[in-house]
From TrEMBL:
SUPFAM superfamilies in UniProt: Homeodomain-like
A molecular function GO annotation: nucleic acid binding
Region Disordered: start-end pairs: 33-59
Gene3D superfamilies: Ribonuclease H-like superfamily/Ribonuclease H (3.30.420.10)
Residues covered by the DUF4817 domain: 2-41
InterPro entries the UniProt entry points to: DUF4817 (IPR032135), Homeodomain-like_sf (IPR009057), RNaseH_sf (IPR036397)
Pfam families reported in the protein's UniProt record: DUF4817 (PF16087)
Polar residues compositional bias, start-end: 49-59
Protein name in UniProt: DUF4817 domain-containing protein
Coiled coil ranges: none
Length: 336
């Protein structure tokens, strides 16, 4: 086949399959030679013991298939290529194709990386000066639990011989039972259930009546640093004034230390606590909202029985801040 003929084949293929990648040069030459010799692109019958379907042609076909459609399941690929699942898996192993599951990452606005970088640099410098900082911060947040489960990435894969760092961006909001919780190296605090939409008023009421009276009893309260994100209920003037009066330092929107917006990958509640609790709670198959609340309470109790886990989670923030700095404030969880 001449270069001119190869160009014609590529042009025809693009016209017929505009959304697919053009086959490799060697694949086109091999099929062309086979057709000229036999009048067909099918393998000729062979005498004796049948050979394995793991031929060069099938290897090329499998490689091309997953290059054009890396999201395809093995079942679908085996059906479309007319080879058995076991043969397909053997070929994929030879090609070193591995399934990579996507990570859910928070979408960032244009100015967010600079704010994230500023916070992480402060955190790392402060932790170098005082390593106990990692154990002083009480990280807090609300989460939504609902009866019909959570995002399932089990059947969402990307087949490739190298990790494509494939991600899904998703805004982190959903309807359901709203729960407040906190975690620091000395355990977890909560849960506290909001019976209505979270506002500055009922958030402040929770702090005054339910949360601060509990944490004030801890021997390390005087050095505790409160952390919360910049959600509107947290930003109310009365809330900020109360935190100013209660803590020498607190992290948040307009706090003594500014918290970067849209950074769930930097707070233990989001990158660890809620995920662990939701996995266990949903495994319990809650029957109704009250049963859901009971399962959540049980998980918080379980956490307080494993203080070393709480320490490990909170101290891992330093590594995450280092990753954030290395990406200049961009998303980084898909690189972990």
């Amino acid at each position: 086949m001449s270069g001119k003929s190869l160009h014609a084949v590529n042009t025809a293929f693009k016209h017929e399959f505009p959304d697919d990648a053009v086959p490799a040069r060697q694949t086109i030459y091999r099929l062309s030679s086979k057709f000229e010799e036999t009048g067909s692109v099918d393998d000729s019958p062979r005498s004796g013991r049948p050979q394995s379907v793991t031929t060069d042609d099938n290897t090329d076909l499998v490689s091309e298939n997953f290059r054009r459609n890396p999201h395809a399941s093995q079942r679908r690929a085996a059906r479309e290529l007319n080879i058995s699942r076991s043969s397909l898996q053997r070929i994929m192993k030879e090609l070193k194709l591995k399934p990579y599951k996507p990570r859910l990452v928070q979408a960032l606005n244009e100015d967010d990386p600079d704010r994230r970088l500023e916070f992480c640099e402060w955190f790392l410098d402060a932790a170098d000066e005082d390593p106990t900082l990692l154990d002083q911060i009480l990280w807090s947040d609300e989460a939504t639990f609902y009866l019909n489960g959570h995002v399932n990435r089990h059947n969402c894969v990307y087949w490739s011989d190298t990790n494509p760092h494939y991600v899904i961006e998703q805004e982190l909001n959903a309807p359901g039972v709203t729960v407040w919780g906190g975690i620091w190296s000395h355990g977890v605090v909560g849960p506290y259930f909001f019976e209505s939409t979270v506002t500055s008023d009922n958030y402040l009421q929770m702090l005054r009546n339910s949360i601060i009276p509990v944490v004030e009893e801890h021997q390390n309260f005087e050095t505790m640093i409160w952390q919360q994100d910049g959600a509107p209920p947290h930003y109310g003037q009365r809330v900020r004034e109360y935190l100013d009066d209660t803590f020498a330092q607190w992290i948040g929107r307009r706090g003594t230390i500014e918290w970067p917006a849209r950074s769930p990958d930097l707070t233990p509640c989001d990158f660890s606590l809620w995920g662990i609790i939701k996995d266990h709670v949903y495994a319990g198959k809650p029957r109704d909202v009250e049963h859901l609340k009971l399962l959540i309470e049980q998980e918080f109790t379980s956490f307080n029985g494993d203080i070393e886990l709480c320490k490990s989670i909170c101290r891992s923030v330093a590594n995450r801040c280092q990753m954030c700095v290395s990406t200049e404030g961009a998303q980084f969880e898909h690189l972990l």
